[in-house]
Amino acid sequence: MSSPDFTSLGIANPVLQAVQSLGYEQPSPIQAQSIPILLEGANLLGVAQTGTGKTAAFALPLLSRLDSTQKTPQVLVLTPTRELAIQVAEAFQTYARHIKGFHVLPIYGGQDMRGQLRGLQRGAQVIVGTPGRILDHLRRRSLNLGEVRALVLDEADEMLRMGFIDDVETILSETPNNCQRALFSATMPPAIRRVVSKYLGDAKEVSIASKTRTVERISQRYLMVQGRHKMDALTRILEVEDFDGMIIFVRTKSATVEVAEKLEARGFSSAALNGDLSQALRERTINRLKKNQVDIVVATDVAARGLDVERISHVINYDIPYDNEAYVHRIGRTGRAGREGQAILFVAPKERRLLRSIEHSTGQAITSMDLPTGEQVSNQRIEQFQQQILKTLEATDLDVFRELLEKLAHDQELSMTDIAAALASQLQQDRPLFPKLAHIETGDRNRNADREKPLREPREPRSRERREPRESARAERPERNREPRKQRDEHGEFEMVTYRMEVGKNHGVTPGDIVGAIANEADIESRYIGHIKLNDDYSTVELPEGMPKELFDHLRNKVRVCQHPMKLSLVDSGTSKKPSSKGKAGKEKPAHPKPRKKRS
């Protein structure tokens, strides 16, 4: 019997339209079996490994059954981590792109409570959240589950392992008795079975075999690298790795274009693939990859779904996925037709927990890799240079050029070796054979210690309600006016003034990230970057007074810290001066301290 397609499964037309525009063709086994059950309104128990497509398995049918006239929450999805909550919420938004007036709201710990309260007041048909924060809203009475029609427990065994199972049961007890329930889990430990028996007693069970063997054919490595160094690290890897076709995965549509353009500028044949492309352009890009007209495609998860190109030898996760399922989908683009595949994952030090979660989910350790050295890059370029010369010798009639160079050697009394060396030097200027590469901090020195920490989301304190106003007031408290601080260097004394940037602790930013962004983008030596103060939603930094206007505008409008816009602004201290286009008047040296020398 032939496999069903999405049209025959019975999902609503607006949802089907979104699925077709995404390029989905055949539903995965868990989707084919789960969607009809959930469309009927029945309870479902899904036993499936990560990477089987279960997000669409529950999102598509539940969106098909939404009541457009009801603005209160109709669907609640519980996830073990904030990262998965974001991923699932984004999936719902994508599948509901043709449903008018649709709103989905992710709710998780570590996020500003006031923004969540505003979102709940505006209304959302679908709520995706972590158990701890959902409970906080239930206690505050800011979330009412009285009209919820369906509840999904995603990765239930992870919630059990992280200690959330009691919270999950409390939330389940707050939903109406006639609420449809679906539970998805890779394993079925006794505690999960007890929840199923109590709350999903009549559930229909769908069990999907593991895809572990597909992952086993893929060699998986990771590189611990800070975000600001990722492009340089990627370039070195591309120089040294022997790849045929490659997909580089990023999180956002804009990043696909940005990374592809930077790779093109560095001499790599690449193209962007994202959801903003029409179906015709998407197909054209994939065909170019198949026909060796482009070697690298930079894509988002959604754009690469269903992509099957045999020549893809490597997958690079430039941005680590928040969802373990997405990781398996990504690396599954390589290792096709029984071939060996290569998967490389970029991990920032603060993302170690996501790395460990992926390893736990796939049941495989991911090997740490070393960044290619300058010597390795140089050796690879020399080998390619030599191959290029040999091909030219074999394929081209060089008699005219031989005569020209022999005459030059005779007239100028030069050796042919010297002439060849001069030509080689000229030829390699755009791509030096002996490059001087910038130092990049890599490594995972704390990994073993980190493995001993429990893999779970930080729990919200029970007394959050009493603490919240004080914390909010602290976050909004303006910087106190103070006299500009003075510093001295070999050029003399200069004043430091305070700037504000719209990134803080909630964005995962560290003082090192701020120093790195300013030092790299403004070309200021770190000794000229003063005191940094991190707050929840913003930070302040002391910089030398008299910053040139064009540099200030660049930092304000274009520079990002940990993928978030810096939005630099000057804190009014009563005495500090605005950024200047001329520097300090009456002084020969610029107001901005001498920048560090650029490294080649």
TrEMBL record:
Highest taxon in the source lineage: Bacteria
SUPFAM superfamilies assigned: P-loop containing nucleoside triphosphate hydrolases
GO biological process, alphabetically ordered: cellular response to cold; ribosomal large subunit assembly; RNA catabolic process
Domain called DEAD-box RNA helicase Q: residue spans: 4-32
UniProt region (Disordered), positions on chain: 436-494, 567-600
Location of the Helicase C-terminal domain: 217-377
Protein keywords: ATP-binding, Cytoplasm, Helicase, Hydrolase, Nucleotide-binding, RNA-binding, Stress response
GO cellular component: cytosol; ribosome
Keyword Cytoplasm: yes
Motif (Q motif): 4-32
Tagged with keyword Nucleotide-binding: yes
Compartments (UniProt record): Cytoplasm
Compositionally skewed regions (Basic and acidic residues) per UniProt: 438-494
The protein's role, per its UniProt record: DEAD-box RNA helicase involved in various cellular processes at low temperature, including ribosome biogenesis, mRNA degradation and translation initiation.
HAMAP family: DEAD_helicase_DeaD (MF_00964)
Name of the featured protein: ATP-dependent RNA helicase DeaD
Organism: Porticoccus litoralis
Gene encoding the protein: deaD
